[in-house]
Amino acid sequence: MSSKLIFAGAASLFSLEKIRSSFSEKGFDVSFCDAPFMKGFVSQKDAPLIDFSDNLEPDSESFVVPLTENWISWCIKNGNCRISDKALKASRSKTLFYQLLKDSGHKVPDLFDTYEDAVSHLDPDSYIVVKPEGLFSGYGVEIIPLKEKEKVSFYMEKASEIKNHAMRIMNVSTSRAILSAFTEGPEFSCDCFVNKVEKKLLRLCRKKVVLINDKPCTQIVSFLSPSLPEYKFFEKEIFSWLQCLFSEDDISFAQFDFKLLPEGILVPIDFAARIGGGMKELFQTASKDFYSDVLFGSKNEEKTDSYTMYNYLPAFKGTIVRDDFPLVSGEKFVFKKKGDHVISNPSSHASRIACVVQKGLPDEKKIQELSRSLMLGSPWII
User: Fold this and answer.
1) pTM of the complete model
2) Tell me, what's the pLDDT at 2?
Protein backbone atom coordinates (compact mmCIF):
# COMPACT_ATOMS: atom_id res chain seq x y z
CA MET A 1 0.00 0.00 0.00
CA SER A 2 1.37 3.44 -0.93
CA SER A 3 2.15 6.03 1.72
CA LYS A 4 0.04 9.13 1.00
CA LEU A 5 1.97 12.37 1.40
CA ILE A 6 0.75 15.94 0.94
CA PHE A 7 3.57 18.34 0.10
CA ALA A 8 2.29 21.57 1.68
CA GLY A 9 3.91 24.77 0.44
CA ALA A 10 4.45 23.40 -3.07
CA ALA A 11 4.98 26.85 -4.62
CA SER A 12 8.53 26.61 -3.28
CA LEU A 13 9.24 23.64 -5.58
CA PHE A 14 9.43 23.18 -9.34
CA SER A 15 9.13 20.22 -11.75
CA LEU A 16 6.25 18.85 -9.69
CA GLU A 17 5.26 16.13 -12.15
CA LYS A 18 8.78 14.72 -12.03
CA ILE A 19 8.79 14.86 -8.23
CA ARG A 20 5.48 13.02 -8.06
CA SER A 21 6.69 10.37 -10.50
CA SER A 22 9.95 9.84 -8.61
CA PHE A 23 8.16 9.44 -5.29
CA SER A 24 5.64 7.09 -6.86
CA GLU A 25 8.46 4.75 -7.90
CA LYS A 26 9.43 4.52 -4.23
CA GLY A 27 5.92 3.73 -3.00
CA PHE A 28 4.68 7.24 -2.20
CA ASP A 29 1.40 8.72 -3.42
CA VAL A 30 2.21 12.45 -3.46
CA SER A 31 -0.16 15.39 -3.88
CA PHE A 32 0.57 19.12 -3.60
CA CYS A 33 -1.12 22.02 -1.84
CA ASP A 34 -0.45 25.64 -0.90
CA ALA A 35 -2.18 28.79 0.31
CA PRO A 36 -4.18 30.67 -2.36
CA PHE A 37 -1.98 33.79 -2.13
CA MET A 38 0.98 31.72 -3.44
CA LYS A 39 -0.68 30.98 -6.79
CA GLY A 40 1.08 33.88 -8.49
CA PHE A 41 4.49 32.40 -7.67
CA VAL A 42 3.97 29.12 -9.54
CA SER A 43 4.66 28.32 -13.20
CA GLN A 44 1.78 27.59 -15.56
CA LYS A 45 3.06 24.03 -15.86
CA ASP A 46 3.04 23.33 -12.11
CA ALA A 47 -0.07 25.31 -11.07
CA PRO A 48 -2.66 22.69 -12.16
CA LEU A 49 -1.00 20.11 -9.89
CA ILE A 50 -1.43 22.21 -6.75
CA ASP A 51 -4.57 22.42 -4.63
CA PHE A 52 -4.70 26.06 -3.54
CA SER A 53 -6.75 26.16 -0.36
CA ASP A 54 -6.73 27.60 3.16
CA ASN A 55 -8.69 24.63 4.44
CA LEU A 56 -6.50 21.55 4.16
CA GLU A 57 -8.34 18.51 5.47
CA PRO A 58 -6.25 15.36 4.93
CA ASP A 59 -7.88 11.99 5.39
CA SER A 60 -6.73 9.58 8.08
CA GLU A 61 -4.28 7.85 5.73
CA SER A 62 -2.50 11.01 4.54
CA PHE A 63 0.41 12.85 6.15
CA VAL A 64 1.44 16.45 5.55
CA VAL A 65 5.08 17.19 4.70
CA PRO A 66 5.65 20.93 5.34
CA LEU A 67 7.87 22.81 2.88
CA THR A 68 7.55 26.29 4.43
CA GLU A 69 7.18 27.91 7.86
CA ASN A 70 3.46 28.45 7.38
CA TRP A 71 2.92 24.71 7.02
CA ILE A 72 5.18 23.81 9.96
CA SER A 73 2.77 25.92 12.02
CA TRP A 74 -0.12 23.98 10.47
CA CYS A 75 1.49 20.67 11.52
CA ILE A 76 2.11 21.91 15.07
CA LYS A 77 -1.54 22.94 15.36
CA ASN A 78 -3.19 19.99 13.60
CA GLY A 79 -0.78 17.10 14.09
CA ASN A 80 -1.36 15.48 10.66
CA CYS A 81 2.31 14.87 9.96
CA ARG A 82 5.00 12.33 10.72
CA ILE A 83 7.54 14.60 12.38
CA SER A 84 8.77 14.16 15.94
CA ASP A 85 7.80 16.70 18.60
CA LYS A 86 11.51 17.37 19.04
CA ALA A 87 11.95 18.43 15.41
CA LEU A 88 8.79 20.55 15.36
CA LYS A 89 9.62 22.30 18.63
CA ALA A 90 13.26 22.80 17.62
CA SER A 91 11.96 24.54 14.49
CA ARG A 92 10.43 27.13 16.81
CA SER A 93 13.04 27.33 19.58
CA LYS A 94 16.74 27.90 18.94
CA THR A 95 17.36 27.31 22.64
CA LEU A 96 15.84 23.82 22.42
CA PHE A 97 17.59 23.13 19.10
CA TYR A 98 20.99 23.98 20.57
CA GLN A 99 20.28 22.02 23.77
CA LEU A 100 19.23 18.84 21.94
CA LEU A 101 22.43 18.82 19.89
CA LYS A 102 24.63 19.84 22.81
CA ASP A 103 23.23 16.95 24.90
CA SER A 104 24.36 14.60 22.12
CA GLY A 105 27.91 15.92 22.18
CA HIS A 106 27.75 18.41 19.31
CA LYS A 107 29.29 21.87 19.47
CA VAL A 108 26.73 24.68 19.35
CA PRO A 109 26.90 28.45 19.92
CA ASP A 110 26.99 29.50 23.58
CA LEU A 111 23.79 31.12 24.83
CA PHE A 112 23.62 33.80 27.53
CA ASP A 113 20.74 34.90 29.75
CA THR A 114 21.97 38.47 30.16
CA TYR A 115 24.39 40.92 28.62
CA GLU A 116 26.51 40.78 31.77
CA ASP A 117 26.72 36.99 31.48
CA ALA A 118 27.95 37.32 27.88
CA VAL A 119 30.57 39.94 28.84
CA SER A 120 31.95 37.66 31.56
CA HIS A 121 32.49 34.77 29.11
CA LEU A 122 33.44 36.37 25.78
CA ASP A 123 36.42 38.27 24.44
CA PRO A 124 35.65 42.01 24.72
CA ASP A 125 36.44 42.48 21.01
CA SER A 126 34.04 39.74 19.91
CA TYR A 127 30.60 40.05 18.36
CA ILE A 128 27.28 39.01 19.87
CA VAL A 129 24.12 37.80 18.12
CA VAL A 130 20.72 39.09 19.23
CA LYS A 131 17.79 37.10 17.88
CA PRO A 132 14.13 36.40 18.68
CA GLU A 133 13.70 32.96 20.19
CA GLY A 134 10.94 31.79 17.87
CA LEU A 135 11.50 33.35 14.44
CA PHE A 136 13.38 32.02 11.44
CA SER A 137 16.01 33.08 8.92
CA GLY A 138 17.15 36.71 9.37
CA TYR A 139 13.96 38.02 10.99
CA GLY A 140 14.92 40.14 13.99
CA VAL A 141 18.55 38.95 13.98
CA GLU A 142 21.25 41.54 14.67
CA ILE A 143 25.02 41.05 14.97
CA ILE A 144 26.92 43.77 16.81
CA PRO A 145 30.20 44.30 18.70
CA LEU A 146 29.88 43.09 22.28
CA LYS A 147 31.38 46.34 23.58
CA GLU A 148 28.41 48.37 22.22
CA LYS A 149 26.24 47.78 25.29
CA GLU A 150 23.59 50.36 24.47
CA LYS A 151 23.05 48.96 20.99
CA VAL A 152 22.87 45.38 22.33
CA SER A 153 20.25 46.47 24.89
CA PHE A 154 18.27 48.31 22.20
CA TYR A 155 18.19 45.27 19.90
CA MET A 156 17.25 42.94 22.78
CA GLU A 157 14.26 45.12 23.58
CA LYS A 158 13.38 45.37 19.90
CA ALA A 159 13.55 41.56 19.45
CA SER A 160 11.34 41.03 22.51
CA GLU A 161 8.66 43.36 21.17
CA ILE A 162 8.72 42.32 17.52
CA LYS A 163 5.26 41.88 16.02
CA ASN A 164 5.03 41.24 12.31
CA HIS A 165 3.79 38.97 9.54
CA ALA A 166 6.56 36.46 10.28
CA MET A 167 5.23 35.92 13.80
CA ARG A 168 1.77 35.18 12.42
CA ILE A 169 3.24 32.65 10.01
CA MET A 170 5.23 31.05 12.83
CA ASN A 171 2.14 31.05 15.07
CA VAL A 172 4.19 32.81 17.75
CA SER A 173 2.26 35.26 19.94
CA THR A 174 5.23 36.68 21.87
CA SER A 175 8.94 36.71 21.23
CA ARG A 176 11.82 36.45 23.69
CA ALA A 177 15.24 37.84 22.87
CA ILE A 178 18.21 35.52 23.20
CA LEU A 179 21.93 36.26 23.09
CA SER A 180 24.41 33.89 21.49
CA ALA A 181 28.10 34.01 20.77
CA PHE A 182 28.95 34.88 17.18
CA THR A 183 30.63 31.94 15.43
CA GLU A 184 33.51 32.88 13.14
CA GLY A 185 34.06 30.95 9.92
CA PRO A 186 32.48 30.34 6.50
CA GLU A 187 28.74 29.72 6.49
CA PHE A 188 26.89 26.87 4.77
CA SER A 189 23.32 25.66 4.39
CA CYS A 190 21.76 22.36 3.35
CA ASP A 191 18.49 20.58 2.69
CA CYS A 192 17.90 16.98 3.76
CA PHE A 193 15.13 14.41 3.53
CA VAL A 194 14.28 11.96 6.29
CA ASN A 195 12.34 8.85 5.27
CA LYS A 196 12.03 6.85 8.46
CA VAL A 197 15.57 5.59 9.13
CA GLU A 198 16.87 6.71 5.71
CA LYS A 199 18.56 10.09 5.41
CA LYS A 200 19.51 12.00 2.28
CA LEU A 201 21.53 15.18 1.81
CA LEU A 202 19.71 16.91 -1.05
CA ARG A 203 21.93 19.93 -1.50
CA LEU A 204 24.88 21.63 0.17
CA CYS A 205 25.59 25.34 -0.33
CA ARG A 206 28.32 27.74 0.76
CA LYS A 207 27.23 31.31 1.53
CA LYS A 208 28.87 34.72 1.63
CA VAL A 209 27.09 36.67 4.36
CA VAL A 210 27.68 40.38 4.99
CA LEU A 211 26.40 42.73 7.68
CA ILE A 212 24.17 45.55 6.45
CA ASN A 213 23.06 47.87 9.25
CA ASP A 214 23.96 45.13 11.77
CA LYS A 215 21.83 42.54 9.97
CA PRO A 216 23.25 39.37 8.28
CA CYS A 217 22.41 39.33 4.57
CA THR A 218 23.30 36.64 2.03
CA GLN A 219 25.19 38.05 -0.96
CA ILE A 220 26.55 34.93 -2.63
CA VAL A 221 25.37 31.30 -2.60
CA SER A 222 27.29 28.45 -4.24
CA PHE A 223 25.77 25.04 -4.83
CA LEU A 224 28.51 22.50 -4.06
CA SER A 225 28.70 19.41 -6.22
CA PRO A 226 28.55 16.01 -4.46
CA SER A 227 31.79 15.14 -6.29
CA LEU A 228 33.80 17.55 -4.13
CA PRO A 229 36.10 15.72 -1.67
CA GLU A 230 34.75 17.43 1.47
CA TYR A 231 31.14 16.52 0.68
CA LYS A 232 31.17 13.20 2.57
CA PHE A 233 32.60 14.87 5.67
CA PHE A 234 29.74 17.37 5.73
CA GLU A 235 27.20 14.62 5.06
CA LYS A 236 28.31 12.50 8.02
CA GLU A 237 28.03 15.36 10.52
CA ILE A 238 24.68 16.57 9.16
CA PHE A 239 23.23 13.05 9.45
CA SER A 240 24.25 12.98 13.11
CA TRP A 241 22.20 16.16 13.68
CA LEU A 242 19.21 14.54 11.99
CA GLN A 243 19.61 11.57 14.31
CA CYS A 244 19.20 13.89 17.31
CA LEU A 245 16.05 15.59 16.02
CA PHE A 246 13.98 12.98 14.19
CA SER A 247 12.42 9.66 15.18
CA GLU A 248 12.55 6.35 13.31
CA ASP A 249 9.05 6.77 11.86
CA ASP A 250 9.43 10.37 10.59
CA ILE A 251 9.00 11.56 7.00
CA SER A 252 10.17 15.14 6.62
CA PHE A 253 12.48 17.62 4.96
CA ALA A 254 15.06 19.44 7.09
CA GLN A 255 17.12 22.58 6.57
CA PHE A 256 20.24 23.66 8.47
CA ASP A 257 22.47 26.74 8.49
CA PHE A 258 25.90 26.13 9.99
CA LYS A 259 29.47 27.40 10.28
CA LEU A 260 32.80 25.66 9.68
CA LEU A 261 35.40 26.36 12.36
CA PRO A 262 39.12 26.57 11.44
CA GLU A 263 39.73 23.26 13.25
CA GLY A 264 37.24 21.53 10.94
CA ILE A 265 34.25 21.36 13.31
CA LEU A 266 30.73 22.14 12.05
CA VAL A 267 28.57 24.34 14.28
CA PRO A 268 24.80 24.44 13.52
CA ILE A 269 23.20 27.86 13.96
CA ASP A 270 19.67 27.36 12.62
CA PHE A 271 17.22 24.56 11.77
CA ALA A 272 13.68 24.01 10.49
CA ALA A 273 11.68 20.95 9.43
CA ARG A 274 11.25 22.21 5.85
CA ILE A 275 13.30 23.01 2.75
CA GLY A 276 15.42 26.15 2.49
CA GLY A 277 14.18 29.26 0.74
CA GLY A 278 15.59 31.86 -1.59
CA MET A 279 17.50 29.49 -3.88
CA LYS A 280 14.94 28.52 -6.51
CA GLU A 281 16.72 30.54 -9.24
CA LEU A 282 20.00 28.82 -8.42
CA PHE A 283 18.55 25.33 -8.62
CA GLN A 284 16.53 25.91 -11.77
CA THR A 285 19.54 27.32 -13.60
CA ALA A 286 21.66 24.39 -12.50
CA SER A 287 19.02 22.08 -14.06
CA LYS A 288 19.18 20.12 -10.84
CA ASP A 289 16.00 18.38 -9.72
CA PHE A 290 17.02 18.18 -6.09
CA TYR A 291 13.75 16.80 -4.83
CA SER A 292 13.54 13.93 -7.30
CA ASP A 293 16.83 12.98 -8.98
CA VAL A 294 18.99 13.59 -5.93
CA LEU A 295 16.49 12.20 -3.47
CA PHE A 296 16.27 8.80 -5.03
CA GLY A 297 19.77 8.33 -6.39
CA SER A 298 19.33 9.22 -10.05
CA LYS A 299 22.21 8.69 -12.45
CA ASN A 300 22.65 12.48 -12.32
CA GLU A 301 23.27 12.49 -8.56
CA GLU A 302 27.04 12.83 -8.90
CA LYS A 303 26.73 15.67 -11.38
CA THR A 304 30.05 17.49 -11.15
CA ASP A 305 28.93 21.02 -11.97
CA SER A 306 28.76 23.62 -9.23
CA TYR A 307 26.82 26.87 -9.65
CA THR A 308 26.89 30.24 -7.89
CA MET A 309 24.14 32.82 -7.36
CA TYR A 310 25.00 36.50 -6.81
CA ASN A 311 22.33 38.51 -4.96
CA TYR A 312 22.12 42.26 -5.60
CA LEU A 313 20.97 44.06 -2.44
CA PRO A 314 20.00 47.65 -1.63
CA ALA A 315 22.73 49.59 0.16
CA PHE A 316 20.14 51.82 1.82
CA LYS A 317 16.40 52.46 2.07
CA GLY A 318 14.79 54.36 -0.78
CA THR A 319 13.09 54.22 -4.16
CA ILE A 320 14.56 52.69 -7.31
CA VAL A 321 14.88 55.46 -9.93
CA ARG A 322 16.94 53.53 -12.50
CA ASP A 323 16.73 49.85 -13.39
CA ASP A 324 19.78 49.57 -15.67
CA PHE A 325 21.47 47.54 -12.95
CA PRO A 326 25.18 46.66 -13.52
CA LEU A 327 24.69 42.88 -13.42
CA VAL A 328 27.48 40.41 -14.14
CA SER A 329 27.13 37.92 -16.98
CA GLY A 330 25.03 34.82 -16.48
CA GLU A 331 21.37 33.84 -16.05
CA LYS A 332 19.70 37.04 -14.81
CA PHE A 333 16.61 37.44 -12.61
CA VAL A 334 15.34 40.96 -11.84
CA PHE A 335 12.87 41.33 -8.95
CA LYS A 336 12.62 45.10 -8.49
CA LYS A 337 11.90 47.77 -11.07
CA LYS A 338 11.82 51.54 -11.34
CA GLY A 339 9.44 52.99 -8.76
CA ASP A 340 9.76 50.09 -6.30
CA HIS A 341 10.63 50.79 -2.67
CA VAL A 342 13.58 48.94 -1.07
CA ILE A 343 14.51 48.61 2.60
CA SER A 344 17.76 49.20 4.48
CA ASN A 345 17.87 45.78 6.14
CA PRO A 346 17.60 43.33 3.19
CA SER A 347 17.96 40.07 5.13
CA SER A 348 15.12 38.27 3.37
CA HIS A 349 15.47 36.88 -0.16
CA ALA A 350 12.33 38.86 -1.00
CA SER A 351 14.37 42.05 -0.53
CA ARG A 352 16.74 41.24 -3.41
CA ILE A 353 16.84 43.68 -6.29
CA ALA A 354 18.15 41.03 -8.70
CA CYS A 355 20.30 37.92 -8.85
CA VAL A 356 22.60 36.33 -11.42
CA VAL A 357 23.51 32.63 -11.59
CA GLN A 358 26.82 31.49 -13.09
CA LYS A 359 28.37 28.08 -13.57
CA GLY A 360 31.36 27.32 -11.35
CA LEU A 361 32.70 28.40 -7.96
CA PRO A 362 34.34 31.81 -7.41
CA ASP A 363 37.70 32.02 -5.68
CA GLU A 364 38.19 34.25 -2.65
CA LYS A 365 39.60 37.11 -4.72
CA LYS A 366 36.52 37.18 -6.96
CA ILE A 367 34.22 37.01 -3.95
CA GLN A 368 35.86 40.04 -2.39
CA GLU A 369 35.80 42.00 -5.66
CA LEU A 370 32.14 41.24 -6.37
CA SER A 371 30.99 41.79 -2.81
CA ARG A 372 31.24 45.56 -3.17
CA SER A 373 29.47 45.67 -6.55
CA LEU A 374 26.54 43.61 -5.24
CA MET A 375 25.46 46.52 -3.06
CA LEU A 376 23.35 48.89 -5.15
CA GLY A 377 22.93 52.48 -4.02
CA SER A 378 23.21 55.77 -5.93
CA PRO A 379 22.46 56.38 -8.78
CA TRP A 380 19.93 53.50 -8.81
CA ILE A 381 18.32 54.26 -5.47
CA ILE A 382 17.43 57.61 -3.90
Assistant:
1) 0.89
2) 61
